[in-house]
Amino acid sequence: MDFFSDYTMTIDGRAATAPAGFPAYNPATEDVIAEAPDATRAQLDAAVDAAARAFPAWSARPIAERQALVARIGDLIEAHAEAFMRLLTLEQGKARKGAEWEIGGSVVWCREIARQSLPVHVVEDTAERRVETRRVPLGVIGGITPWNFPVLLAIWKIAPALVAGNTMVLKPSPYTPLCTLKLGELLRDVLPPGVLNIVSGGNDLGAWLTTHPSVRKISFTGSTATGRKIMASASGNLKRITLELGGNDPAIVLPDVDVKQTAEKLFWAAFQNSAQFCVAAKRLYIHEDIYDELATALVDYARTVKVGDGARQGIDLGPIQNRMQFEKLRDLLADAKANGQRFLIGGEIGDGPGFFVPVTIVDNPPEDSRVVVEEAFGPVLPLLKFNDLDDVVARANATEYGLAASVWGRDIETARQVAERIEAGTVWINEIHSFSPHVAFGGHKQSGIGIENALEGLAEYTNAQTLVVNGAA
Ligand code: NAD
């Protein structure tokens, strides 16, 4: 199979081209690297119909068989890991290490989710009756993914949806369709036709999926703004929804940390994947006693990090994935500059080609400035001073978001007390970004609805069904 040409959709187990296509770009060069099919409305309907036809047989298969096929998806990704990593870097921009993390993670997720199943809860088992609640699949799932981790976040949906007995129509971001289309091609002969359909297209295609009457659930990862639209359009037939949305995660650094050691961890907490990471540390609150020392250590470390074309050896951070996000960051930097904010490093965007934004650290901007309030989704990090725990907790929580957070300090009891007061779905202490297929992940407030991963995540691909069996006929 050639990963670098001939991108087709997968509908009912077969390749599908579309009357029109749209370009995919290499964000490091701005060159067009391929054309992806732009699905028509009729093709989306055909994909949903195929998934609906495949559902009865797929859901009736023993779960062990479904688990084995999901584990096999992991084996196949592993067998083609090199091609996936190269294509991921080409279309997404991320550097080699990041591509290894994403593709390696996708393999692990398939294998581990394939070990999960939902127990039957027996509530009563008496001579008179047996009452049990079991979990049954929903039907056709619509999956919609963003452009920052296109493969891993697709697997986070495909693996539990299929293990639970559902079928799926998945739509990748129009900015990063290529790896997902190749994943569909790879699985064409592995999964029964219609179990996993991959369609590519623009935002309209997403809207058709979310309003389709035969789709029973939407599992969406993307921005809060789109999440709101999806919640509204899913109401037509009361679709279930799981929404993994944006974040503006605070990291709180207490005065007793080892500054040198923590600086490197905090750098990556903020800038991993060029900060195109829903759970990147996006506001760094530093106790005033160590502010200057830590700011200097962060800048010193930042000088050692290489930004460039992710396909080149020795590059740590790639470009921003697309022009839309790149222009948003340009605007954010212009705003910071116009308001007299001080850059400790970075702040100047070069002439290109490529959507490169330098690592930028902003020195203690006002709490209501755009660099603090908005989710930058790019390498622009505000450092903020605090001297009082109640104050920093209030500032950390003063956002519509509640995705994740981190607290850094040697006195674990104090760090824990702070962590427990943060309104966020995940709070890490002295580490960050440790994810597991067996650990629940989801946002509070406007960072989302529902959970991915763990048995709670698997359960979101099911309905509860209670059986009350009275032995007397
Ligand atoms: P986005 O919301 O612009 O797009 C995400 C997906 O939604 C794309 O596939 C897009 O085509 C589709 N879409 C757009 N409009 C639609 C509509 N009206 N109906 C249905 N689908 C539609 O998000 P993005 O820019 O691709 O991703 C960045 C955002 O995703 C950031 O806010 C980031 O924090 C968030 N994110 C969250 C998580 C998480 O797990 N919570 C993970 C990664 C990214």
CATH architecture of the largest domain: 3-Layer(aba) Sandwich
Helix content: 25-40%
Report the major sheet.
7 strands, mixed
User: Shape from CA axes?
Assistant: globular
User: Unreliable runs, pLDDT <50, ≥5 residues?
Assistant: none
Q: Distance between the terminal alpha carbons, to the nearest Å?
A: 59 Å
Helix-strand makeup class: alpha/beta
Topology-level CATH name of the largest domain: Aldehyde Dehydrogenase, Chain A, domain 1
Q: Measured on Cα atoms, how large is the radius of gyration?
A: 23 Å
- Number of discrete helical segments: 15
Rounded mean pLDDT score:
98
CATH hierarchy, class of the largest domain: Alpha Beta
Bound molecules: nicotinamide-adenine-dinucleotide
Total domain units = 2
Total beta-strand segments: 20
Which homologous superfamily in CATH is the superfamily of the largest domain?
A: Aldehyde Dehydrogenase, Chain A, domain 1
Order of strands in the sheet with the most strands?
14-15-16-13-12-17-18
Strand content: 15-25%
Describe this structure in words.
The structure is a single chain. With 473 residues, the chain is an alpha/beta fold. It is 38% helix and 22% strand. It contains 15 helices and 20 strands. A seven-stranded mixed beta sheet has the order 14-15-16-13-12-17-18, sandwiched between helices. The longest helix is centred in the N-terminal third of the chain and has 20 residues, at 41-60. The N and C termini lie far apart (59 Å). Bound molecules: nicotinamide-adenine-dinucleotide. Keywords: Oxidoreductase.
